[in-house]
Amino acid sequence: MAPRTDRGRSSTNEGDKYGRLNRVSNPKKADLRKQLVDAGYRPRRALLHADLEEMAHTKIHRQLAYQKCRREALQKFVRSRGLKDISLDKTNKDLAQALVKADKTRQFTKLLDLPPEVRLVIADYYLNDINHGKTSLLCPTQPPLARTCKLLRKEVLPLFFQQSRFALKVELVIHPITSHPAPPKRGTLSFDSSRFIDSIPPQSLQDLRSLAVTFGGRNLSFRQIHTTVQIDSAGDLIKAFKNHAVAVDEDDGEMRYDLISDMMDKVEDAAQQWYVQAVKEYWEKLVVLG
């Protein structure tokens, strides 16, 4: 697939952000301490901001909180991890810090040695952990686990597209608001959404289950209207954009066109219903305001 030359137009330059182990979003010391207390921690008053942030990061990602462990447990963890450069006679704080450091640099190289059904359980947990099913992903890259090797990509991508909700933006050309609105003309995908569609392997299009489609258009007379239509069980919804000019290789061009050819009417119906309802609400507000 030929690379885009207008990449700079995109407002989304961190498509992999959803999969990162992000730090806490509001790192004020008082907020960090409250989060930890609410989670059952007992942070000492003397802890520095960096220590509180590290503890909060551990809580968010459900890692073991070594600060809450007894000395015997810490020593057992050090022995089982084979940390020979740390003495068991060290203080609890030193033992905990050594274990945290070891966790940050740990590696697991035997994933491919596991049975396929076990790898699928791990992939399912991994994807649920980074997505939570609560947000819509805008122009995401493939999850890191799917980019490690061909086998894992084949196993992980179907789960990723089936379990995640993806955000698509449709830009509509609409008429000025009148008491008798005309249906909007056919919409086009925004640049970010267009780029995302281009990046989806043809075989993955059929795995899509949930899309949050946002219709937006510049109203020529009064205001800008946006709304979001959530369409679940949308394995074929991506087919809606048959007028989208995708750059495809010759060998998958026909397949992709077939996949994008059937569903535009459903999206157009949803867009028209939204627009008519938006206009109706607008005029009702005008009547109320007198």
Descriptive notes:
The chain has 290 residues and is α/β, with parallel strands linked by helices. The chain has two domains: 9-104, no CATH class; 164-289, no CATH class. Helix content is 43%, strand content 10%. It has ten helices and five strands; from the N terminus they run αααααβαββααββαα. The protein has helices at 29-38, 49-60, 71-81, 92-104, 116-131, 150-163, 191-199, 202-205, 250-259, 264-289; strands spanning 136-138, 165-171, 188-189, 210-218, 224-232. Strands 1, 2, 3, 4 and 5 form a five-stranded mixed β-sheet that branches. α6 links the parallel β1 and β2. α1 packs across α2. The radius of gyration is 25 Å and the shape is flat. Residues 1-13 and 238-266 have low confidence and may be disordered.
Gap from first CA to last CA? 56 Å
N-to-C SSE series? Answer: HHHHHEHEEHHEEHH
User: Over the alpha carbons, how many angstroms does the gyration radius reach?
Assistant: 25 Å
Main sheet record: 5 strands, mixed
Work out the count of structural domains: 2
Structural class: alpha/beta
Detail the poorly predicted runs: 1-13, 238-266
Strand content: 5-15%
- Helix amount: 40-55%
Mean pLDDT: 68
The number of helical runs is 10
The shape is flat
- How many strand segments? 5
